[in-house]
């Protein structure tokens, strides 16, 4: 059982708990991107387990009449074992999604996985439009990657980037990352027909996106994590398409620890919960 301190950031251990969270969010105008916790597998068995769990979840979402989608990590479904394993498992998941007309996001991990992730996305997006990929503004290669992705029919989620990448390949200072994020948004709103996902909690980046939307008319959506600026998510959903990235599953402890430590307000919340204040 997930303790209350962690349930702010994790939607439950079971699919049933997750779907109840999805249902409650939809009642408030926010849709859900569902992620089963797990990553960096080096053996095929856990990758197959998570692959099958995602397939079952897609069926459950459809049977429940909900509008949620899923997001998978490449290392979760076999990239650490080999690119062929990753592609085979992803293809099975996308096939199940197509059966139910559901959307599949492919998360982006650290820079050695970028090419394999983008190649797999490009192959699937040309066959099934309900596929998206995450891309990180802090990587210096990202403007070129966006030019490659602009003509594909899927969606692209732009985030600032959470991995500690070397300075040779990534912007490391916050002002430069913010500048790169704005530049990427400018390109996407001008060159993409639609399919833009603004993955940020930063009010300045969201405001920048809304201005570009008004200027170019390009459709977009806003994506935020469960447990972070949830009041803002509800407020934004009154005017924009808002999605909440909600993780679930038994591997919640390490995820909760990262969320609690990475932002001051999250850590304060956690400490207050511990001491009962």
From TrEMBL:
One of its GO terms (biological process) is L-proline catabolic process to L-glutamate. It comes from the Archaea. Pathway: Amino-acid degradation; L-proline degradation into L-glutamate; L-glutamate from L-proline: step 1/2. Residues 19-269 form the Proline dehydrogenase domain. Keywords: FAD, Flavoprotein, Nucleotide-binding, Oxidoreductase, Proline metabolism. GO terms for molecular function: nucleotide binding; proline dehydrogenase activity. It catalyses: L-proline + a quinone = (S)-1-pyrroline-5-carboxylate + a quinol + H(+). Its cofactor is FAD. It holds the Pfam family Pro_dh. InterPro entries: FAD-linked_oxidoreductase-like, PRODH_bac_arc, Proline_DH_dom, Proline_oxidase. The keyword Secreted does not apply. Its EC number is 1.5.5.2. PANTHER family: PROLINE DEHYDROGENASE 1, MITOCHONDRIAL (PTHR13914:SF0), PROLINE OXIDASE (PTHR13914). This is proline dehydrogenase.
């Amino acid at each position: 059982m997930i303790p209350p301190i962690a349930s702010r950031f994790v939607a439950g251990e079971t699919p049933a708990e997750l779907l109840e969270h999805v249902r409650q969010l939809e009642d408030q105008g926010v849709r859900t991107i569902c992620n089963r916790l797990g990553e960096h597998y080096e053996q095929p068995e856990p990758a197959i387990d998570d692959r099958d769990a995602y397939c079952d979840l897609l069926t459950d979402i459809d049977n429940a009449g909900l509008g949620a989608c899923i997001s998978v990590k490449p290392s979760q479904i076999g990239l650490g074992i080999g690119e062929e394993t990753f592609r085979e498992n992803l293809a099975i998941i996308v096939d199940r999604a197509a059966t139910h007309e559901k959307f599949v996001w492919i998360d982006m991990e650290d820079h050695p996985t970028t090419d394999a992730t983008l190649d797999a996305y490009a192959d699937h997006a040309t066959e099934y439009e309900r596929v998206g990929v995450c891309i990180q503004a802090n990587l210096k290669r990202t403007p070129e990657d966006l030019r490659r992705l602009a003509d594909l029919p899927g969606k692209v989620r732009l985030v600032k980037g959470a991995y500690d990448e070397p300075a040779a390949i990534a912007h490391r200072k916050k002002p430069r990352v913010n500048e790169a994020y704005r530049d990427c948004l400018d390109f996407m709103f001008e060159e993409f027909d639609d399919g833009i996902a603004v993955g940020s909690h930063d009010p300045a980046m969201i405001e920048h996106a809304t201005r570009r939307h008004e200027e170019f008319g390009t459709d977009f959506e806003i994506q935020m994590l469960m447990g972070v600026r949830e009041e803002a998510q509800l407020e934004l959903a009154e005017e924009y398409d808002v999605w909440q990235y909600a993780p679930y599953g038994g591997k919640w402890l390490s995820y909760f620890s990262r969320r609690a430590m990475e932002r001051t307000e999250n850590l304060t919340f956690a400490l207050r919960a511990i001491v009962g204040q």
